[in-house]
């Protein structure tokens, strides 16, 4: 079989900070897969999900005129971890969020964001600037009440009530609570204070190592979106400790970080373990690492090599591809979502309207290896015809 072609694939996907239920995750996958079928002129069938404590598993069978791929899909769960942060009341969330903000500044992360990608620095500052604005408005409201009534105590009470009202109302349409939870989680993660997640990653790492030695597949794809890319680095670091020669024998193993938050954590001075894992992954001869970035997505680090930004030995990794969200969507669809930063960020894991160099479902379900899709100038578009057929010649060239 041509070295670039895949007939069986095992995927471990770790998503970002989005506490979706297992049922919703599966429904969203199936819905977006239909876009993929229409865009690439292929057919797919998806099994019902098997929901476990650590992961959600289902199978996908995808076919074009001259190819067929079976994908075993494993969505690594951490929605329960996120929900534990969501349950925190506002009176705890705000001070803990501000503490995280201060720590990321003094740990050098904000300067790192400004140095590597000023858009991400604005994303970091956004929730805290909102709180500062709310505090200023609340202070002015309290001062007005104090002067009007002649009572400093009532003025302070009015300021406090106004601040709470602004926080609670704005949280519904500014993602404020969600973002505070994310930064609180990020701080706890750096300091190793989430034991449930640590244990889960240990279990999935053992499963990954077992799969690499026994699974009847051509490729194992570990794909992390957003903060999921950080957790994938953690996962692969654990797997390499268990099996230092991971990927050197058996199925090829590829790691893809898409819309990645690796630098979000890596630029914090305390993220020593993450930087060690990145160095280990970059040096591992049995692993291929590709990274996809996009300008329109303010939640990733556009045109940034994570290893170089962290001043780590790169070993030629990762292979960075810059793609355009605009090219993935129809003009009408792009106009609808381009100002919704969260939705733009999620296009990395959604179905495309157009054939482009990056397509999440082609990476998960397509007949070309992840490495060949990363290396081909137009991705799978270089090898898939208008009727969905695979060009054997182009696939061979990609492998070479």
Write the layout of secondary structure elements.
Elements: E1 8-14, H1 22-40, E2 43-46, E3 50-51, E4 55-64, E5 67-76, H2 79-86, H3 90-106, H4 109-116, H5 118-149, H6 152-174, H7 176-190, H8 195-214, E6 219-225, H9 227-242, E7 252-258, H10 262-266, H11 272-283, E8 287-294, H12 306-309, E9 319-323, H13 325-328, H14 331-337, H15 341-345, H16 360-365, H17 370-375, H18 392-399
Parallel strand pairs: 1-5, 1-6, 6-7, 7-8, 8-9
Antiparallel strand pairs: 2-4, 3-4, 4-5
Using brief descriptors, characterize the structure shown:
400 residues; alpha/beta; Rossmann fold; 2 domains; nine-stranded mixed sheet; 18 helices; 15% strand; globular
Structural summary, described in words:
Strand 8, helix 12 and strand 9 (319-323) form a beta-alpha-beta unit. Helix 8 (195-214) crosses helix 9 (227-242). The model has no long low-confidence stretch (mean pLDDT 94). The two termini are 14 Å apart. By secondary structure, this protein is an alpha/beta fold. The protein is built from 18 helices and 9 strands. Strands 1, 2, 3, 4, 5, 6, 7, 8 and 9 form a 9-stranded mixed beta sheet that branches.
Beta strands, count: 9
Low-confidence stretches: none
Mean pLDDT: 94
- Can you write the helix and strand succession as a string? EHEEEEHHHHHHHEHEHHEHEHHHHHH
Q: Enter the CATH topology name of the largest domain.
A: Rossmann fold
Class of secondary structure makeup: alpha/beta
Rounded radius of gyration (Å): 23 Å
Instruction: Give the biggest sheet.
Output: 9 strands, mixed
